[in-house]
Amino acid sequence: MLAVGVLAGLSVLSLLTYGYLSWESLGLGPGETEATRTGLGEELGAGAPSSQPHIIFILADDQGFRDVGYHGSEIRTPTLDKLAAEGVKLENYYVQPMCTPSRSQFITGKYQIHTGLQHSIIRPTQPNCLPLDNVTLPQKLKEVGYSTHMVGKWHLGFYRRECMPTQRGFDTFFGSLLGSGDYYTHFKCDSPGICGYDLYENDNAAWDHDNGIYSTQMYTQKVQQILASHNPRKPIFLYIAYQAVHSPLQAPGKYFEHYRSINNINRRRYAAMLACLDEAINNVTLALKKYGYYENSIIIYSSDNGGQPMAGGSNWPLRGSKGTYWEGGIRAVGFVHSPLLKNKGSVCKELVHITDWFPTLITLAEGQIDEDIQLDGYDIWETISEGRRSPRVDILHNIDPIYTKAKNGSWAAGYGIWNTAIQSAIRVNHWKLLTGNPGYSDWVPPQAFSNAGPNRWHNERVSWSAGKTVWLFNITADPYERVDLSARYPDVVKQLLRRLSQFNKTAVPVRYPPKDPRSNPKLNGGVWGPWFKEDEKKKKSDKSKGANKQKKNKNKKKAN
């Protein structure tokens, strides 16, 4: 045991000293794994091994559908390409069009309409968070003995201490609470004068870590430290939610090397950020091998939503972008890499949604899903690992009752079944229906990132038909949403509108409160963090109760 402690200590020290790992620093060739060697991983793994797999969930931020090498991108992603090629590529995989919705659905296994987060994102100044009555994935994994760690972007609210990651099932948390911020200084301004620091270790501002390190590299170093200090014979859940490649577009200089030829400055910066992210995932994978986790691990990679063309992202040839319910906003890059997969090196074209990870991972972890939890996700492990049919036949992309209503929408346009002014989208088998205002709907070809800029997009711009508020597509036959079939198949439209209506009956009220001036970081030592004090509320109610008691006593005396 003494040898184990010394080795683990030396490992942490070396990580702190040198930061990143590389193939060379491990003495490994690209094709060689720790499993083929004796050494540190084996010694650290002394003791009875767990049958429960290590779960590593990596969530990229705003990565476009095209922005991975194996989807034809000019941006090189050798790590992602290799991991995906040796695993299972998810080529019919859906997320939500924005940050908070995707994260909330991953961690609860529920659609937005069932958590109250169906509108937009959680803003820094809003007294809002993932409702506390929702059981989370890390809480369920802890029940069956997992050590749970989160590194990266939270974006599920923090106005109360109870909303923080460490109160929602994570043993440790290192990262940011907000949706974006400076990659080096970790400062974020929500509006003029409302600015603060946003880097946390557990429940406190991580001032000690404010060394000007680029967040992608800093988060990777933290992951390496966690792996070095944990016993690989005990199951671990690592949720790594990188800030990259979300704006602001920042990257260390060396990653621009291969992309000088990209004229569009936003695309060039974005490419450098993605190159750094790819290297980071390489280093995470190497650490898993070095410290003895890899052979019993499941690595899941996913983007949280589509790319934002104005910020360098590309979803070509899909339609639309981040923030929309067109395929470019919700169809994501995703794959599973694991020695435990049965059908390695395959492509899964079955329907998979981000809510499916909750029941899938709990089942793999040998956990129990309570009967009273009404999940929207399905266990899709056999679909991914063995190539079986997906149990999922539909996806409610969302119903947002407070999004800007479509001017020409009406109950009449929805055959008396649905008000088409409301923004909604649903997928049932091959069919996809959109109503209301689905958002920016252009196709943005790769040429758009040349010096010519937006002028090159004109051939792909959409001329809106007056009064249109319903669209129907056969996504299997027409994944790029070029041919609207709503007029040709009114019966299919009616069926999908009825399904929307059924879902809507189960929706909970939208949680989207106005901003709270007490959220200003200036009132919290210059840090973004919990501002709603439960104690103050109790004191006030206790005071009012005391005052009422005194009044009652006075009235009694008077009566006597």
TrEMBL record:
GO molecular function, one term: metal ion binding
Compositional bias annotation for Basic residues: 546-560
First and last residue of the signal peptide: none
Keywords from the UniProt entry: Calcium, Glycoprotein, Hydrolase, Metal-binding
Protein name: ARSJ Arylsulfatase
Co-factor requirement: Ca(2+)
Superkingdom: Eukaryota
Record domain Sulfatase N-terminal: where: 53-365
Keyword Calcium among record annotations: yes
Entry annotated with the keyword ATP-binding: no
Compositional bias segments (type: Basic and acidic residues): 532-545
Family: Belongs to the sulfatase family.
PANTHER family assigned to the protein according to its UniProt record, in alphabetical order: ARYLSULFATASE, ARYLSULFATASE J
UniProt-annotated stretches for the region Disordered: 509-560
Listed Gene3D superfamilies: 3.30.1120.10, Alkaline Phosphatase, subunit A
Family matches, as InterPro entries: Alkaline_phosphatase_core_sf, ARSB, Sulfatase_CS, Sulfatase_N
